[in-house]
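One such given next:
>
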Amino acid sequence: MNSTATVLHDSETLVVYPWLDPVVDSTGFEVRSDYVEHYWLGILGPTSTWLLRRLVSGFDHYPDGYELNLPETAAALGLNYRTDKECPFTRGIDRLVMFGVAQKYSYGLAVRTRIPALSARHVQRLPQHLRETHAMWLANATS
């Protein structure tokens, strides 16, 4: 896995852009939705999920992108900020990229504002009660 260090450049800021994807934007779920909390949380993990929500909330004020202060953001999430791969904050960014909800872009990070439904492979990783309700949730969301 490519480390986030190539995005962070030992800097204390990161430019965050919205990741525009017509397919996912028309069919996906808003990052701050109950779907993400119920189903993506167990896949991304709590740090990455909270970080994703924080990154997307920046678009409420700066829809075309903004410069994120990394130490301040990490502290707001109860984390320390370091650029090494062992830092939970840095691993959180790596997980967003690894699971396809963010991608390295120019001198920063492009972040989805809507994310797709979980793949079948990821649904199988969920606890039994969430696997059972996932299909019903999707059926209700598309009707």
The chain has a mean pLDDT of 90.
